[in-house]
Specification:
With 280 residues, this protein is α/β, with parallel strands linked by helices. The chain contains 12 helices and 10 strands.
């Protein structure tokens, strides 16, 4: 679905302010995958995903979406229909006077009739946990940051792009709302969507991702299943990345010489391992 080949991106190239954000990155995201991009601030995560719908163009290398090269202007013009991108800061993509108009905007651009637009917009608000009757007439700029994030997400879900690329979609949300959004994204992936999420919540990444890709200083540092990636807490901490608490706990016990397994990524697994340890 998304093929990144030897991608390099330099901001302000040829100037004294030139900054290399990505260097020779290659990555293949299959249709229907759930991929989490992780890494410290400044590792290149947001720059990478903005190439997926043509907001940024490669300085070198190329990005193909569904076999189409994003460097082609005609391809970029319609990429939004395929790849829905949620920005880390919702105020960067909210602009309508009401929540309903915001969520309905892309559907109207698809040329759908108003009845279908209304059904999709209300359904999308319900999906993210916002009651349509309560929120539809409100200004999105009168909402909390977490609610703005949900409105922006609803705007993507309403027009149903096959690829969802979400930059910190649960920032500003309480734990219950965060869990709801992760569960929703997993259901969308199971229904056939390709889901790519940037997050700093590694416990959530361990529970929901099929693959975790770790970036460090503009390059891919490690990738694999959550169990594979989080099996080396020390190495991940060295590149500024936290690990799920169960992994950290097992690592600390190992450092004290206790015979516990590596690759423990969930609380249930950690509980079982501790019971086995206690039983000797």
């Amino acid at each position: 679905m998304i093929l990144v080949e030897h991608l390099t991106h330099i901001y302000a190239p040829g100037t004294p302010l030139a900054l290399t954000s990505l260097e020779d990155v290659s990555l293949h995201i299959e249709e229907g995958e759930f991929v989490v991009l992780a890494g410290a601030t400044g590792s290149g995560k947001s720059t990478l995903v903005q190439h997926f719908n043509g907001l940024l163009l490669p300085t070198a290398g190329r990005v193909l979406v569904g076999g189409r090269d994003t460097r082609d202007k005609k391809v970029r013009r319609d990429l939004w229909r395929t790849v829905g991108l949620l920005f880390q800061n919702p105020e960067q993509q909210l602009f309508e006077e009401s929540v309903f108009a915001e969520v309905a905007f892309a559907c109207r651009n698809l040329g759908l009739d108003e009845k279908t637009v209304a059904v999709r917009a209300c359904r999308a608000l319900e999906m993210v946990g916002l009651e349509p009757d309560r929120y539809r007439a409100l200004s999105p700029f009168a909402l909390s940051r977490g609610q703005q994030q949900l409105v922006a997400l609803a705007g993507l879900l309403a027009y149903q792009p096959p690829v969802l690329v979400l930059d910190e979609p649960t920032s500003g949300l309480d734990p219950a709302a965060r869990e709801h959004i992760w569960q929703l994204l997993k259901k969308l992936q199971q229904a056939g969507h390709t889901v790519v999420v940037i997050t700093h919540h590694m416990e959530d990444a361990a529970r929901f991702a099929g693959r975790v890709v770790v970036l460090h200083r503009g390059k891919i540092y490690r990738q694999g299943t959550p169990r594979q990636v989080f099996s080396d807490p020390g190495g991940l901490r060295a590149v500024g990345l936290d690990v799920p608490m169960p992994c950290e706990l097992m690592y600390c016990l190992q450092q004290k010489g206790l015979p516990v397994k590596s690759g423990i990524i969930t609380l249930d697994e950690a509980e079982l391992e501790l019971k086995n340890l206690a039983m000797g």
